[in-house]
């Protein structure tokens, strides 16, 4: 009889079918077949936190199809992904498809492979095992823990802050990081400093070079204002200069390790502006099509077989001079990394990233980065000739110039041929000068600078920070970032996260009243506990109970003591209430900040804060109201974003939609304006004269193209 093989997706099923014999029937579960209910807690707290799983409506059809496919089969092979989530999906399938008492027993087996290749699949099917209950328990523990936090803490936020807010064990920590970084920026006081650059040459018409002033009489020089810079400039004009020293050294630049999940997400963010979600979606497709090894990993390990194949490829395509004596193996710093897993690498190096070969455009970019890095990490370092030259003036001013010349490309050869580099290095080649040689200064350029605040977090830097703190694991970074955007806690300006008003209020509330939920160290320790459950070193129920019992008591207490009016009052304003004379206070309401009378509820005066629109928005003429004599349209912000309303409101309640223009005439009719429009969770660009003109574009016709995830976050603002 034939065997039923179950994977998660149709793409993976199609790829796997190509390697298995005809007596294997491969079906897809379409992801999770069973989960906690969407409404209600779904956890029996009084009976050891037993989860109450349900089959969602969208999965019932799939489950019935799997049951039908099982009728003429004598065994089921569960071939879901090789991680905790995949193990849990396999367990749910076994629980649902397993025979009831008294019926014929069907054998369930588990196969695990980290790449969809013929050899890996054959090896996995030769070594079938039972389900790993420790991995299942670890996934259940995480799911239950996050459900307890969300379903206990979120309703408290609804009552004390605003309905619809959510809290999460990892998402709230990510929001806290973004909020604290923004506060660092707000508190930052820029300091002025100046630099002085000199341009030098000699009497023999050698090529000139530039050097920066770094010291005065052997001490570091600090130029704090323009007067000091101008004084130095005047002193240098009539000074004489000599080459004090010329030092030549060799510098090596080693290749980077192969990718793991977090570094792949960081690289795609830095090079192509991909969000973590976009990167992981593409990587999932590549894995299921058999192009790469499993993409959720924190290991830097590479198999000896792959290292040997990489060395052969490098020798044949780049030359033996690019190869080190032995293959290079990297050690993972994380103590909890699963070394049985591999780093992310191509399954076949012969499949070069210069043709799509069934890949989407995004998948090709992700594959190119993985393919490139997997070769680079097995090549020799790049070698530079580095020159450092010091110039000394007769009065004691010291300048320094540095230059580099790439003399051996090493691993950088791969990126050069692909025209993709993860970092740009500007080389400055210095002319040949000798020590004690006299030089002339032809230009002196003082320049004003200001110290810069710490940069906002991007996908790349937020993932890096979470990983360094030990918060989250490879499978959690992308969904965490997607969640805090979907919940409206943060928006994106270009690639960088900006916290909204509610992010500050919720973070402050959690830090003060629920420090264990949002504490960096505690969250990292909880991740370690989940790892110990996965390794079989801890039972999951005591871990959950140890957290939940004090947490639940705190929830009950804070529900009684916290006052919404105190939490949502952000501070005093300089204005007085026009109706009763009391101070107006800044409050946070359903649609953002507004001014309210401090004498509330005796006085119910309130008004919106009219500072959310840019000066450009405020100064625009939006036309006259057609329904009253002296009214004009002004820009307002409401529940669904910006809109135009009559200035005579509430006497006149006329409104009309706000058209966000990009400053360009329609390229099709040349009459209307190109405006931003919204379609579901994306934005697109269309003509303001629609339906008379049907011009539309998914990309900005001004030339700035947004990624799908960037447009998704932008649409929530617009």
TrEMBL record:
Site positions for Interaction with DNA: 32, 142-143, 146, 151, 158, 296, 487
Topo IA-type catalytic domain residues: 132-556
An example Gene Ontology biological process: DNA topological change
GO MF annotation, one: DNA topoisomerase type I (single strand cut, ATP-independent) activity
Catalytic activity: ATP-independent breakage of single-stranded DNA, followed by passage and rejoining
Enzyme Commission number(s) of this protein: 5.6.2.1
Gene Ontology CC: chromosome
Pfam entry (one): Topoisom_bac
Active-site residues, record numbering mapped to chain: 294
Domain of life: Bacteria
Domain Toprim: 2-116
Keywords (A to Z) from UniProt: DNA-binding, Isomerase, Magnesium, Metal-binding, Topoisomerase, Zinc, Zinc-finger
Region Interaction with DNA, residue ranges: 166-171
Family in the record: Belongs to the type IA topoisomerase family.
Role noted for this protein: Releases the supercoiling and torsional tension of DNA, which is introduced during the DNA replication and transcription, by transiently cleaving and rejoining one strand of the DNA duplex. Introduces a single-strand break via transesterification at a target site in duplex DNA. The scissile phosphodiester is attacked by the catalytic tyrosine of the enzyme, resulting in the formation of a DNA-(5'-phosphotyrosyl)-enzyme intermediate and the expulsion of a 3'-OH DNA strand. The free DNA strand then undergoes passage around the unbroken strand, thus removing DNA supercoils.
Known partners and oligomeric status: Monomer.
Record protein name field: DNA topoisomerase 1
Biological source species: candidate division WWE3 bacterium
Encoding gene, per UniProt annotation: topA
């Amino acid at each position: 009889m034939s065997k039923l093989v179950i994977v998660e997706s149709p793409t993976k099923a199609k790829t796997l079918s190509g390697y298995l014999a005809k007596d294997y029937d491969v079906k897809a579960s379409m992801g999770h077949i069973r989960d906690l209910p969407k409404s209600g807690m779904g956890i029996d707290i009084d009976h050891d936190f037993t989860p109450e799983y349900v089959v969602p409506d969208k999965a019932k059809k799939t489950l019935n199809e799997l049951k039908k496919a099982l009728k003429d089969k004598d065994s089921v092979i569960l071939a879901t992904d090789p991680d905790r989530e995949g193990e849990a999906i396999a367990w749910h399938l076994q629980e649902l498809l397993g025979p009831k008492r008294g019926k014929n027993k069907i054998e369930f087996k588990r196969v695990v492979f980290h790449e969809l290749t013929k050899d890996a699949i054959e090896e996995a099917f030769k070594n079938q095992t039972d389900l790993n209950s420790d991995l299942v328990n670890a996934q259940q523990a995480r799911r239950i823990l996050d459900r307890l936090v969300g379903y206990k803490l979120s309703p408290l936020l609804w009552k004390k802050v605003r309905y619809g807010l959510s809290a999460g064990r990892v998402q709230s920590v990510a929001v806290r990081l973004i909020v604290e970084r923004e506060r660092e920026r707000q508190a930052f006081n820029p300091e002025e400093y100046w630099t002085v650059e000199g341009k030098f040459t000699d009497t023999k018409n050698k090529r000139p070079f530039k050097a920066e002033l770094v010291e005065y009489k052997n001490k570091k020089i600090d130029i704090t204002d323009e007067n000091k810079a101008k004084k130095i400039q005047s002193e240098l004009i009539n000074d004489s200069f000599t080459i004090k020293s010329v030092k030549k050294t060799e510098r090596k630049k080693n290749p980077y390790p192969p990718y793991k999940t977090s570094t792949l997400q960081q690289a795609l963010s830095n090079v192509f502006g991909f969000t973590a979600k976009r990167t992981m979606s593409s990587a999932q497709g590549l894995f299921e099509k058999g192009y790469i090894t499993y993409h959720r990993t924190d290991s830097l390990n590479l198999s000896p077989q792959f290292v040997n194949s990489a060395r052969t490829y490098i020798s044949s395509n780049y030359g033996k001079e690019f190869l080190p004596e032995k293959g290079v193996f990297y050690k993972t710093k994380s103590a909890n990394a699963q070394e049985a897993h591999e780093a992310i690498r191509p399954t076949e190096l012969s499949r070069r990233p210069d043709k799509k070969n069934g890949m989407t455009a995004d998948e090709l970019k992700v594959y190119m980065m993985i393919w490139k890095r997997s070769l680079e990490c097995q090549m020799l370092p790049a070698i530079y000739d580095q020159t450092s030259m010091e110039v000394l003036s007769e009065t004691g001013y010291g300048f320094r110039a540095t230059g580099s010349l790439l003399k051996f490309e090493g691993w950088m050869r791969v990126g050069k041929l692909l025209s993709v580099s993860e970092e740009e290095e500007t080389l400055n080649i210095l002319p040949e000068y000798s020590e004690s040689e006299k030089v002339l200064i032809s230009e002196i350029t003082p320049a004003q600078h200001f110290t810069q605040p710490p940069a906002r977090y991007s996908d790349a830097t937020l993932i890096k920070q979470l990983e360094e703190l030990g918060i989250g694991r490879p499978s959690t970074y992308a969904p965490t970032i997607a969640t805090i955007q979907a919940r409206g806690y943060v928006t994106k300006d270009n690639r960088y996260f900006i916290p909204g008003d509610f992010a500050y209020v919720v973070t402050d509330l959690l830090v003060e009243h629920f420090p264990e939920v949002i504490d960096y160290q505690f969250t990292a320790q909880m991740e370690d506990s989940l790892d110990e459950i996965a390794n079989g070193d801890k039972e999951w129920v005591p871990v959950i109970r140890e957290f939940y019992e004090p947490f639940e008591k705190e929830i009950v207490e804070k529900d009684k003591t916290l006052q919404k009016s105190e939490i949502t009052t952000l501070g005093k304003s300089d204005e007085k209430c026009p109706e009763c004379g009391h101070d107006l206070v800044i409050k946070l309401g359903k649609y953002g900040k507004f001014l309210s009378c401090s004498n509330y509820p005796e006085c119910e005066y309130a008004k919106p804060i009219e500072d959310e629109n840019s000066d450009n928005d405020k100064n625009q003429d939006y036309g006259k109201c057609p329904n009253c004599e002296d009214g004009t349209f002004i820009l307002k912000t409401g529940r669904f974003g910006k809109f135009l309303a009559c200035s005579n409101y509430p006497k006149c309640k006329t409104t009309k939609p706000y058209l966000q223009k990009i400053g360009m005439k329609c390229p099709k009719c040349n009459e209307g304006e190109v405006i931003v429009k919204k379609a579901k969770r994306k934005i697109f660009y269309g003509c303001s004269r629609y339906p008379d003109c049907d011009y539309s574009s998914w990309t900005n016709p001004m030339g700035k193209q947004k990624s799908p995830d960037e447009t998704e976050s932008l649409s929530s603002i617009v």
